[in-house]
Every structure is written in structure tokens, then in C-alpha cells.
Amino acid sequence: MPTNICTQRENALALLGHRRPAWLDTEVNMIFPREILDNVARGFVADALPFSPQEDAGGLDMFGVRWVYEPEARGSMVPPGAPLLETMVDWRETIAVPDLEALPWDDIARRCLPLVSQEKLNGTMVFTGFFERLISLLDFENAAVALIDEDEEDAIRDFFQMLVSYYTVLFQKLHTCCGIDIVTFHDDWGHQRGTFFSERVCLNLLLPYLKATVDACHQAGMYFDFHCCGKVESFVPLMIEAGVDKWDGQLLNDIYGLLERYGSQLVITYNIKCPDLAGAEAEAWAAELVSRLPEDPAKGLWIPARGLSADARTALKAAWQQRQ
Fold first, then answer.
1. How many CB atoms lie within 10 A of CB 69?
2. What secondary structure, in 3-state letters, does 128-155 show?
3. One domain, residues 261 and 281
4. Is the pLDDT of residue 1 over 90?
5. How many CB atoms lie within 10 A of CB 101?
6. How many structural domains does the chain have?
7. Could you tell me if 157 and 74 lie in one domain?
8. In this structure, which of 128, 266, 285, 303 has its CB flanked by the most CB atoms within 10 Å?
9. 280 sits in which H/E element
10. What is the pLDDT of residues 252-285, one digit of tens each?
């Protein structure tokens, strides 16, 4: 076991730095200021003031899109069938660009900085990335068509460049005023069987702006965690090209194969949920998982602790340390 690692923060930094961690399960302290309206709309607020998703979530996001919170799903959606836009061509006539500088950042800092953990990484989320932002404005079908419609390409590039500028300011503020170390950026690019769009479309319309956003995150002093659902393993090399630090995907992808091929360039999340594993069953599960990991300690697998039982966490740590 590495003798210089004693906190969750140090262990997570070892993983992100492609060094051997002392254990595999990770915890992140999450902070979500309510002044970023996307957080309220999606039901995630943690900023030292009371917030009840059942009572307070939903409403308009930063771009004027209305979300409805579904308590049973513990998440929000834009009601389909009445999109804010039909195409992106004249988006500037309808969408007001958010003025982040106008937010009360001194008040946000007074509430959020005391929440910063010294023992864990401090994280937040950007819930709606590039393609997902198009979906929120256009509905899914029109958003998918927009990516291949030559008449909309210039408008989409203009919109995406605006988003890069918005995220650049947002990242700087989140790091300075909220103590954020890592941003989880949501943009789902696939479904259960494949991707929503081709590699050519991704290279042409998404990758340049994703890369610029990753660069802005790094320049602000934070790590970039790309939450991208669906069977999107074919896009992993593009994520690496964009400079993404960690990919937060789904188990329907070949996680172990991807870890072997790309793990020295990209930390990969293993989103397993086994809250009820106990005793010998937990030990057998942990031993099997660790046995499948690459020998190279630079190929890091990030396992969120929130999905594991106490026995699973204990067994996983023991199996990992026995391997060393």
C-alpha cells in the first residue's frame, strides 16, 4: 500500500494522476449553489441552505428552459412536444445568454467555501452539455437532425461557442468561489446499442467545443469528468483527444477492455451498485473484480463508494491490497 496516501482526496488524486491508489472506491464532496438555476431545475442543490427536491426542484434553467422534477425518478425532464425552438438558425432571437458575472458570487462564496472538504475532492456537475442542451431546446428528434442539417451548422457552431464562453466563466467562478476540484460534465452521446451520431459528426461539431471546454476547466484549476451514457466506447479515443481526465460511463461498455487499452490515458469509472453485498459474497465479488484489472497501476479504475455496501468496500480494499 502506498505509504503517502491517507485521505480520500490523496487517493483520488493518485487515480487522476495515473499512480497506484491505496484503494479503489472513491468519495467526492459535492457542492451545488442554487444561483446556478440548472442545479435547482435538476433537483441538486447543496449550498448550506435548506432545499427539498420534492418541493423546490424544477423550473427554468439558465437558458430559459422549463424542467419538471419527477420525485419517483428523482430527476427532472423537459416536457416533450413543445420545444422552445424548432431549429437553431435564429436561436439568438429567443435565447438570452446567461450573465454569470451578475450573480452574487460573494454571497455564494460565503455559503459554499465553508462546505469545502480537506479530506475529499470537492465536486459539482454541469448537467446539460452540448448535445443535451440542443435536446432541451429542440426536443430529441430535431436536435439529432440539427447535427446533420447544413442549414443549421453555422448556428450550432455559434451556439456551441457561446456555451464554451459560458462554461469558461462558470468554471473560474466555481473553483474560486466554491472550492471545486472536479467538474462532472453531462452529455450523453449514445443509447443502449450504439451512438446517437457518427464519428464524423462528433469530430465536426462536438469535439472542437468539448476540447475547448476541457481546456477551460483545466485552466481554472480543476479536473474534467465526462459523464457520457450509452454504448459510446467507440468515442473513447475522441474523449482522450479532447483531454478528458475521467470518463463516467455505463457498464454496457467493455469497461475492462477499454481500461486495458486506454487506462493509462483516461481514468474510467466503474459504476457498479451492490448495496446489499455482505460477507463471503462481497469477498468473492471483490476478488473477481480485482483479478480482472490490468497489471499496470497507471490504468486507474474509479469506483464510486456510494454504490457499495460497507462489506463490499472492506472486501474491495482487502483484495486490492493483497494484490500489491
1. 20
2. CCHHHHHHHHHCHHHHHHHCCCHHHHHH
3. no
4. no
5. 8
6. 2
7. yes
8. 128
9. helix 279-291
10. 999 999 999 999 999 999 999 898 999 999 999 9
Looking at the structure, do residues 251 and 108 belong to the same domain, yes or no?
A: yes
Give CA–CA dist 186/167, Å, rounded: 13
Cell of 246: 475521467
Q: Supply the pLDDT for residue 2.
A: 59
CA distance 230 to 252: 8
Amino acid identity, position 66: R
Residue bearing cell 488524486: 13
d(CA 251, CA 272): 8
Among 44, 232, 63, 210, which Cα is nearest to 138's?
63
Angle between helices 130-138 and 150-178 (to 10 degrees): 120
Residues 213 and 164 in one domain: yes
> Of 38, 134, 141, 136, nearest to 89 (Cα)?
134
Q: What is the DSSP letter of 191?
A: -
- For 287, the domain range is 1-26+272-324
The distance between the two most distant Cα atoms of the chain, rounded to a whole number of Å, is 62
The residue type at 125: M
The H or E element that residue 56 is part of is helix 53-56
Contact 168, 97 (CB under 8 A): no
Helix (H, G, I), strand (E, B) or coil at 285: helix
Q: 169 and 229 share a domain?
A: yes
208 in Cβ contact with 186 (< 8 Å)? no
Q: What is the CATH number of the domain that holds 116?
A: 3.20.20.210
| 305 and 243 within one domain | no
Q: Mean pLDDT across the chain, nearest whole number?
A: 96
Map grid coordinates 490504468 to a residue.
299
Same domain, 117 and 265: yes
**8 A C-beta contact, residue 293 and residue 319:** no
| Beta pairing, strands 59-60 & 66-70 | antiparallel
pLDDT, one tens digit per residue, over 114-141 is 999 999 999 999 999 999 999 999 999 9
Please report, as a single letter, which amino acid is at residue 321: Q
Of 269, 292, 315, the last residue of a domain is 269
